[in-house]
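Newbie here. three chains, one complex. Structure please?
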Amino acid sequence: MADTPVVSSLAIPPTPDGRSPLSSTSARRVLQLVWQDRSARLALAFLFTLAVAAIAAPWLAPYDPLLPLDPVALKLAPPSGLHWFGTDVSSRDVFSRMLYGARVSLAVAALAAALASGLGLLYGGAAGFAGGRVESMMMRLVDALLAIPRILLLITVLALWRSVDAGALILILGTTGWFVVARLARAEAAALRDRDFVVAARALGAAPLRVFVRHVLPHAAGPVVVATTIAIGQVIVLEAGLSFLGYGIAQPTPTWGGIIRDGRETIDSTWWLTLFPGLVLVGTALAVNTLADRLRVALNPRQLPAP
Amino acid sequence: MTAPLAPLLRIENLRTYFHTPAGIARAVDGVSFSIAKGETVGVVGESGCGKSVTALSLLRLIEAPGRIEDGSHLWFEGRDLMTLGTEEMRKVRGNRIAMVFQEPMTALNPVFTVGDQIAEVARVHQGASRKVAWERAVEMLSLVGIPSPRERASNYPHQLSGGMRQRVLIAMALVMNPALLIADEPTTALDVTIQAQILELLAKVQQDFGTAILLITHDLGVVAESAQRVVVMYGGQVVEEAPVRTLFAEPAHPYTRGLMQAMPRVGMNRERLTTIPGSVPPPTAWPSGCRFRDRCSHAWNRCEVDAPAMIAVSAGHQARCHLAEGDRAPEPTSVRAARPL
Amino acid sequence: MIPFLFRRLLQGLAILFTVATVTFALIHAAPGEPFAAQLEDARFTPEMSATLRRQYGLDAPLTTQYARFLTQLVRGDLGNSLSQHRPVREILAQALPRTLVLMSAALAAGFALGVVTGAAQAARAGTRLDRVASRISVALSALPDFWLALALLLVFALRLRWFPVSGMMDQTTHEYLTPMGKLRDVLWHLVLPSTTLALVIGAVVARHQRQALVDILPEEFVRSARAKGVGERSVIMRHALRNALLPIITLFGLALPALVGGAVFVEYIFAWPGMGRVALDALAARDYPVVLGTTLVGSALVVVGSVLADLLSAAVDPRLRRG
């Protein structure tokens, strides 16, 4: 529910001279604009810290995330000086598990979102560029796919395909998440289709494919960047949800959702297993959403942000 | 003040300032004039002179960052509207003073029928029941000359033409038979033929109900046709006030003269229209002295330092200009070259 | 109005048809045969497998299977559950109303909360109250549904013991209750799951409603209403709000898929026996017909909801009625 698509407001007008808003000079300007906002700075700082922690997990983690430390004495121990986030039912240190879990969450989310956006950009861009009946039919398919609640689609795919290693999960998440981006890309491509520089390129004899790749795609990339950012946040939450249900990446690989799952049986007494992963999840989702919001404003100065 | 009786409305030193981060915009800066019962007063001026803000101030519809400053008085029916509380003021609006807005499409709520919107006035002020209010709405629609009023009442704004929508706005304003009707550019958004009909309607209303009308417009032609007295505004102030015939026969203020010269007329034998050189200065920074001096072909150094007061020219005719008291430049000034716009 | 309705219904049907086709494609694109697990059961002799294949119609060419699939769908036949040995239709017919109850309660509460909050915020735009409320809604809408559910479960059911921990009714005592008592029992169980969803819905709606009103309030007709002498409350509630409701209704239509998705997690955590629960149980049991059935029904829900949203939009805004 939190991931309500904001399709129409993501349309970005190209700059008057036809340059894509994402050309190198304006990319710097965009970053500048984002940086100026305090909450966006905080969000970036948070995400950066998270990413660093994830990458440096092998060095930062005080304990081995897979190692049961003391099945008797340290089983389900509350947070303490030695174990900042406590231990889980197999007496593994939760803090270390969360560090390693960050790797999973961030990597899966980034890759899946990239895959989804790539697919969406290509599909939607092609549809918008093609126009006419082809465009209608292609987008009808997208409408139908959008009508399927994502979690049900995921459940269907999981039921039919079964295997859930990281690669497969990325693939599944990516191939079920490109629909919104496809809509955006189509809108942009359709708007660009009749613009002078595209017609000019074609008049010069450029093959449609070349025109598509060189001229249309870069322009459509603008709103897609914002959508991708939002998607990353959504996928992190989704992946956590799947792990929570038991269908994410298989145990014993630590995942944030998995830690919460572990703590479910004893939720009444082991509050730390629910709280810390939850807080990090919320923080990450908030940070990503804030960033996406600022990016959208930066890419389209006419949009006014809500307080 | 020309009315022999006490005037219906007396605006005294109205100042409406907008306190923006860019500075204080003195949109209305010391405006005073009166309207007598049953009189039509036209207020003319270019955009940015403060006439619409004056109208909104009368109904105290100014919102932050705008404020009607202290020292402004709006004497109406024996009370100073500035002293009224929220609820009391609300009872005046639409009831004793009503306003007709400029753009009929946006002034009507698109999701309610026109009948409903007219009836609302009766429900709000008279506590009328739905049925009674609806009947009144149909009656009003008929009054303003809309054919098949009963069917039309069930229409939505988007189903009506521009002229009809404007009539609906007028109907809405007349429900409670107000003593004063403020019409803000009532014809600007309409075709010429419809314009004439609307003006005719307003004249009829005045005749039949004795309603005073404050007619705000930038169109001198409208004023010539409909008003009995004219107030010319510039730079947030009144610069000239006169009975309509007098104004057109002997305009005293250079601005008024400029406006009249700029009006295209049938039978004109010119290639280009005369314009008043320059443009209206921003309300955040009115020039010192006379506000019109930068665009005036008769200005001299006194105009820069000495802001003129309203000076009587003849009976009921005043102008805010040093020329009006017979003063003029020590040596003849050449006509100012037109400034590049 | 009628041609408009008709066109919308046709569009909805087209989408459902496409969803069914996509589902069919998924079944047959998956590695191995559909129902391979059942078919490769070691106890089956090749003859038995062949028979079973014929029974399931898997020996026929793809197009025939597709046609059969569609005709079955139109008749309302969703196949049989592999784990429960009942028609899928029966299982879903039981579970769907429960999900509908949950979603309706959540939607009603969430929209009411969101519209009121958003309106209140818009009326006081820029004040501290407004900013605080905005921060809260942003935070709430970023929360993962399942985590919020867990948090509410922990605090209100386990710690405070105000509400039951799970299920739709008290299993032991429910049959012995009076009809009134039964209703209260179910309602009491409904509170936590629907509140979870309502909070998230409310937060998103509040944000959109606030923005919609802030966009509307400067409109001329609002000023016109004030000039008529209409009281401020009436100006906001009657004139402004009805116009500002439009984007909210559109929002409803767009957010339906996510809403149904959220219900899945909530049903799981609170053990509410609705469609989400059924889907997850079926997933665990590799009961494909049931999983597919829930996907189809879930999508149908979304389509119906979005047609309703369009109808509602047309009801609120007469300009949309021209079809």
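Moderator note: Chain C touches chain A through 66 residues (CB under 8 Å). The mean pLDDT of chain C is 82. Thread marked as resolved.
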